[in-house]
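Task: sequence design from structure.
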């Protein structure tokens, strides 16, 4: 291998960098593979958070960068500008684009030439794509030399879809690495593993016929096999049978070369077989497993071994923890033997423990009086490393060191999207001490343990659940099978060690690969289980705890989850579930458990009102648990920059009519069989007054003079206004939200959404629990659209509060609930009818407009239509029409709103009290229904319902179809 990537310049936001380093374990995977290939170098990351900083490094003399990996928007310039700047400098440096946003990538590819990039890849939550990128670059640069000189074999991969090859490459490289490692004898010690045992086959990725065939002709004698799509470009145009013709040519040269063809068209299977190739259907629910099987069939690290100078093995260590224990008893001769040859530091370096490796190697061996002094020095270094490793980082779970503020992991897989965000917040709070900035408030992330995704894989495989779960369509049977499953002994031992130590209520929450990532809208799809965790019977607590984790695992495969996945470009087979086990923020009030208040902060406000700007953000808060906010119930909304400036309600009567009248708490159930379990319960404001939590959040209304007075000292109706906090400042909520919002946006290079919960303590330190932070989608409103020329008579729906920026001209269907027949007490039936229409239209592949009354996706059926996302997954444009007696504000803090904004759906809010907002109900009722149910009606038109949305002015309209 002549060209080696030893220094990678990673150009991305701090958040993206955190994902790769803390969650992805990039170092460990990269170094583990490289130690089997050479003894000389291992890749190192140089991280910057702006394009300008990257160019400065490339111009300097101190860095010899071999590869640049950039995200789509590294901060101060577009990735394309960065790549072009590198090219103009005359540098032959490969620049790779790694993006989350497939939609944005497609838009850019349609307008611009992307040849300035060596290749474009799509981040889909699998950290192995970074390993694949490095190997892809090395293989492309080295194939000519290595094939010609030592006969290194190659696999040709032909795929023009970025999504698919970004999924394939990590799998292919993973299989090759596994094969290489399997050839290493278990008796070989650590130092010998650094020798080159064999040359790994290379992967040659191409996206068109000509490039792939040129590579085959050049390296045909060393081609191990071909994996190819069938439909890809040939001669500059898309050729639906290019893969078949490529196979035919390959077989003419060498009929023994294995070829795997893939297609979305099942009819291609016979043609592939006739061409002498294997076939995979891209829509197969087990596509990745079948791909792995093909590679294993057709394309025929490790312990530290303590030895004596004569080669006799005396012990071996599987991990650093094991190393710490084993080194205490290893003979002095073995310590001297390995120490003199730097075997210890080399092994640590390969496991990415660079600080510890440097400490081991920084003291010369001859400076030790004897082997025992060397042994004690290494043990002292390991103890120091363990202390430093825990500070503000995600650490391996150890019950001896787990305490308040700890954030630990069980397993070695991914943390999942939600836990990544939490881990990133832990690192931020460790870097920026907020105790002096915000005195009197403890801003913290509640202690948590994350069960990583590899534990999920082990659980599925050991209990033979994977294929069953993918095909099961009965949720009851699904949960039953999962609850009967057993965890591997090592994982169960760690889980039980945690629950035996934890003596507080817990939330067992999902954290899948796709949750809470940019452009991956999976908020609220999977289960969260609450545990009181206070049973006096230890075995009972253990069983409830283990069952909670299994329920979260099972929720990955429910009917709802499967329906949800069908509305996304992702495969359920690729989804992996990590689980967050976190201490709940709140206090016990009799049989109720809840925080004083909870909320969601979004740093981009889609519907700002003067003097607010979109960038000032919007916060939604409610008494009790955050279910009121994320569930789309009545809440208080305010801008932290203008906390005293309320534009949410027109007057006191409007405020009283639309304010929070109940709150959510967790109630300890005492029924037989449920003891120790917590259930979500709606409680009345009188109960909060009894608990002493209402006074700091409420005002008292005086009907005699139509005034609201802060607090609850007076007689009169209580109204949740948050006035004691927002106007009198008894708690610095606006200041905290502004500070952490700035931190979040700066570190993620994007608007963010933050979930939090607060415990107020009179005369003591208040607690602000930082529960979640994730990037949110904003800033797509680049082009201002003008529809002022559309006559009012042609407008079906008009709104001054619209989310989206586009002209949509391919919608021919609308499903609506008619206020004339709608009954709020039966809104759940309307939701069911919308689900039926959604399934019917989904089968036909027809996007549609959904016009509903009240709030979409609300948890409170009296506020709107309580649909789940899978019941409206085919909707292109949502319309919310306010109820006559309740003002329905856009539900910016809810999970439903997060999902529709991430998917890029249009979103109209209609208030009948506004002159510039309306729905032409008479016209709708005059049309002939395509299909009608009790509460909902489906209309279909020959001509489209043209939808125009102006993202800059937040205005939009849906036009009546043109007459034939």
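Answer:
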């Amino acid at each position: 291998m002549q060209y080696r990537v030893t220094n990678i310049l990673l150009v991305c936001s701090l958040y993206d960098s955190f994902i790769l380093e803390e969650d992805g374990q990039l170092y460990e995977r990269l170094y583990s593979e490289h130690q089997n290939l050479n003894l000389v170098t291992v890749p190192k990351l140089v991280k910057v958070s702006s394009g300008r900083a990257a160019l400065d490094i490339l111009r300097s003399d101190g860095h010899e960068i071999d590869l640049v990996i950039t995200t789509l928007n590294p901060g101060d310039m577009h990735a394309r500008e960065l790549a072009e700047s590198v090219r103009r400098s005359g540098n032959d440096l490969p620049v790779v684009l790694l993006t989350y946003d497939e939609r944005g990538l497609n838009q850019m590819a349609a307008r611009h030439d992307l040849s300035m990039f060596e290749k474009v890849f799509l981040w889909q939550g699998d950290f192995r794509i970074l390993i694949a990128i490095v190997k892809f670059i090395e293989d492309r640069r080295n194939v000519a030399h290595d094939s010609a000189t030592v006969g290194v074999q190659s696999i040709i991969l032909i795929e023009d879809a970025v999504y698919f090859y970004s999924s394939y490459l990590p799998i292919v490289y993973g299989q090759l690495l596994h094969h290489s490692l399997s050839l290493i004898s278990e008796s070989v010690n650590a130092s010998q593993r650094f020798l080159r045992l064999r040359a790994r086959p290379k992967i040659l990725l191409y996206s068109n016929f000509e490039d792939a065939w040129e590579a085959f002709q050049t390296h045909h004698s060393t081609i191990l096999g071909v994996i190819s799509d069938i439909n890809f470009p040939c001669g500059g145009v898309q050729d639906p049978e290019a893969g078949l013709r490529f196979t035919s040519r390959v077989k003419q040269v060498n009929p023994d070369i294995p070829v795997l063809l893939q297609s979305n068209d099942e009819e291609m299977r016979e043609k592939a077989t006739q061409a002498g190739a294997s076939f995979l259907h891209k829509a197969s629910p087990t596509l990745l497993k079948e791909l792995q099987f093909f590679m294993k069939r057709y394309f025929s690290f490790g312990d530290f071994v303590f030895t004596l100078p004569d080669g006799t093995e005396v012990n071996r260590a599987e991990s650093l923890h094991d190393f710490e224990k084993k080194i205490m008893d290893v003979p002095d001769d073995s310590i001297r033997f390995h120490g003199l040859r730097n075997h210890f530091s080399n092994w640590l370096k390969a496991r990415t423990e660079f600080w510890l490796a440097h400490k081991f190697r920084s003291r010369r061996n001859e400076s030790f009086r004897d082997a025992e002094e060397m042994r004690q020095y290494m043990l002292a270094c390991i103890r120091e490393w363990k202390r430093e490793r825990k500070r503000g980082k995600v650490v391996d779970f150890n019950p001896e060191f787990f305490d308040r503020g700890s954030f630990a992991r069980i397993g070695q897989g991914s943390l999942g999207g939600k836990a990544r965000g939490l881990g990133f917040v832990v690192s931020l709070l460790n870097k920026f001490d907020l105790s002096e900035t915000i005195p009197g408030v403890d801003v913290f992330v509640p202690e948590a343990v994350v069960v990583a995704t590899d534990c999920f894989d082990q659980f599925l495989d050991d209990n033979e659940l994977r294929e069953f779960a993918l095909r099961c369509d009965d949720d009851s049977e699904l949960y039953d099978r999962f609850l009967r499953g057993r965890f591997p002994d090592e994982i169960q031992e760690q889980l039980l060690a945690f629950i035996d130590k934890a003596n507080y209520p817990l939330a067992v929450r999902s954290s899948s690969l796709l949750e809470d990532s940019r452009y991956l809208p999976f908020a609220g799809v999977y289960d969260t289980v609450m545990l009181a965790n206070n049973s006096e019977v230890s075995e009972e607590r253990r069983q409830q705890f283990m069952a909670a984790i299994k329920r979260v695992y099972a929720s990955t495969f429910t009917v709802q989850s499967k329906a949800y996945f069908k509305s996304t470009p992702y495969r359920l087979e690729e989804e992996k579930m990590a689980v967050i086990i976190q201490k709940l923020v709140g206090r016990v009030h009799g049989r109720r458990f809840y925080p004083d208040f909870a909320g969601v902060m979004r740093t981009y406000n889609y519907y700002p009102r003067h003097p607010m700007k979109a960038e000032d953000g919007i916060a939604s808060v409610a008494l009790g648990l955050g279910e009121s906010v994320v569930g789309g119930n009545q809440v208080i909304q305010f801008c932290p920059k203008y906390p005293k400036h309320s534009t949410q309600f027109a007057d006191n009567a409007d405020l009283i009519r639309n304010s929070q009248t109940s709150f959510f708490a967790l109630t300890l159930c005492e029924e037989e069989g449920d003891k120790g379990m917590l259930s979500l319960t709606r409680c009345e404001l009188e109960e909060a007054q009894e608990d002493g939590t209402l006074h700091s959040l409420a005002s008292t209304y005086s009907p005699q003079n139509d005034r609201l007075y802060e607090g609850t000292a007076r007689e009169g109706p209580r109204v949740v206004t948050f006035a004691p906090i927002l106007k009198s400042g008894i708690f610095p909520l606006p200041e905290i939200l502004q500070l952490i919002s700035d931190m979040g946006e700066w570190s993620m290079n994007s608007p963010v959404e933050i979930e939090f919960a607060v415990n107020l303590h009179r005369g003591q330190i208040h607690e602000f629990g930082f529960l979640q932070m994730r990037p949110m989608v904003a800033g797509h409103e680049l082009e201002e659209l003008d529809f002022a020329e559309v006559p009012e008579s042609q407008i079906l729906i008009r709104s001054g509060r619209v989310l989206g920026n586009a002209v949509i001209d391919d919608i021919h269907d609308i499903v609506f609930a008619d206020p004339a027949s709608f009954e709020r007490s039966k809104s759940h039936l309307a939701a069911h009818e919308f689900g039926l229409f959604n399934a019917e239209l989904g089968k036909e592949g027809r996007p549609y407009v959904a016009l509903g009354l009240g709030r979409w996706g609300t948890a409170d059926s009296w506020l709107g239509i309580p649909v789940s996302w899978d019941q409206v997954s085919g909707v292109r444009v949502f319309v919310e029409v306010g109820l006559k007696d309740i003002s329905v504000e856009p539900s910016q803090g809810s999970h439903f709103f997060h999902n529709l904004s991430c998917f890029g759906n249009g979103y109209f809010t209609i208030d009948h009290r506004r002159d510039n907002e309306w729905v032409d109900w008479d016209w709708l009722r005059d049309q002939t229904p395509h299909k009608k149910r009790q509460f909902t009606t489906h209309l279909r038109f020959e001509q489209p319902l043209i939808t125009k949305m102006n993202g800059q002015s937040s205005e939009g309209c849906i036009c009546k179809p043109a007459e034939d």
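Residues 36-40, 182-198, 670-677, 779-784 have pLDDT under 50 and may be disordered.
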